[in-house]
Amino acid sequence: AGNVEFRDVHFSYDPNRKILKGVSFEVPAGKTVAIVGPSGAGKSTISRLLFRFYDVQSGEVLIDGQDVRDVTQESLRSAIGMVPQDTVLFNDTVAYNIRYGRMDASQDEVRRAAELAQIGPFIERLPEGYATMVGERGLKLSGGEKQRVAIARTILKAPPILILDEATSALDSHTEQEIQAALDLVSKDRTTIVIAHRLSTVISADEIIVLKDGQIAERGTHADLLRQN
Length: 229
Ligand code: ADP
Ligand code: ADP
Description:
This is ABC transporter ATP-binding protein/permease. Its main location: membrane. With 229 residues, the protein is α/β, with parallel strands linked by helices. The chain has helices at residues 43-50, 73-79, 94-99, 107-116, 128-133, 143-157, 173-187, 222-228, and strands at 4-11, 20-27, 32-36, 58-63, 66-67, 80-83, 161-165, 191-196, 207-212, 215-220. The strands form 2 sheets. A 6-stranded mixed beta sheet has the order 6-7-8-3-9-10. It has a 4-stranded antiparallel beta sheet with strand order 2-1-4-5, with helices on one face. Strand 9 and strand 10 form a beta hairpin. It is globular and about 50 Å long. The chain starts with a strand and ends with a helix.
């Protein structure tokens, strides 16, 4: 399960400006497709359409052959996991933040997910702002640490489809390598859509789609695209 398909998708937020102009691609279940392109190309819009935050004007967005318009919000939320650019944490412990999305998980499961995402030592701590409110010393999490929380949450939730939206963009290269290793682990055998600015960050994708101005400008493996450019 987890096949994702966009069929000739046209989309605009407002009628005067087309954002996606006939985008078609398929991510076979378990494979990884990267969507690469400059800022404003429409990359994040693709993930919003998959979650059905918006509906397409024409064409189809399908999960396992089923139009997302025929899927409940609840099943979409459980089928798709997202590691966003900026993770906003809830005002509760790191453990709670990891468990969010799978409240039935045991302490052990939460701990294991945290360890895989390399945020293990922090799980009982409270993020800074909230801790002050309850009179405790808070934990100031860096951007990279918040991303690890999001990754741990995704490891625990184990959704069939994963969206990684510039998941390593704001990190220094050492942290990026560590996070990348954790992400490779979560995306293994899982349908994955990676959204990125740079070709160099998506070497291992099964297919790379270069999106420019709402259209697919090029597609192929990393090696194909290097050859063409
Ligand atoms: P990318 O992820 O490639 O940077 P986006 O999909 O976020 O691009 O955005 C594509 C275009 O759509 C941009 O020009 C952006 O300004 C516009 N856009 C994004 N979200 C909205 C919105 N909610 N309402 C109107 N325009 C939007
Ligand atoms: P990012 O992809 O950087 O997280 P967004 O995808 O939310 O940011 O937005 C991308 C671009 O779309 C930004 O330039 C933003 O100003 C613009 N944008 C976002 N939401 C809207 C909106 N509701 N109306 C108009 N422009 C928007």
